[in-house]
Every structure is written in structure tokens, then in C-alpha cells.
Design brief:
- The protein has a five-stranded antiparallel β-sheet, with no helix packed on it.
- The termini are far apart.
- The protein is built from no helices and five strands.
- About 0% of the residues lie in helices and about 20% in strands.
- It has a domain of about 40 residues.
- It is globular.
- The protein is mainly β and about 70 residues long.
- A hairpin with a 4-residue loop joins strand 3 and strand 4.
Length: about 70
Amino acid sequence: MTSALMRPGRPPKHESCHHRPRCPDALAPGRAAARVVASHPEQGWSLLCNGVLLFDDGGELLLMSSSVAVAAAA
């Protein structure tokens, strides 16, 4: 089975959030506050309701396959 994230040239399908209140959009500053829909702590990541892949180190992969840098700890 091929996931939408693995198909080049095709944006992943994302259904809008059905939670109340709605989860923050994938491009919103508070996007990491969305509900977890799939968790894989053994692999170090979770899929959020808004389609963001959130990694245990704080990094994020957005719907458009762009990444968000993790700030280095001082």
C-alpha cells in the first residue's frame, strides 16, 4: 500500500477537521496543538489531525512536504 506522502507530484488527501473546536490549520502558528490521529512513539513521530507529521525532536513536516526547522537548545 502506498501512502499519499510517498506519491511524487500528488498532494496528500486531507479531510477537514471534525473536532469542536476545530484543530489549528497546518499553516497556523499553533499547528502542533492539533489532535493526534496516529502515534508511533517507537519511531519518534505522530500524525496530527491537520495533516502535520510531528517528530519527537520538535521538527514538523507540513502538508506541502516542507519542513520546519527545530530551534537548537541553548
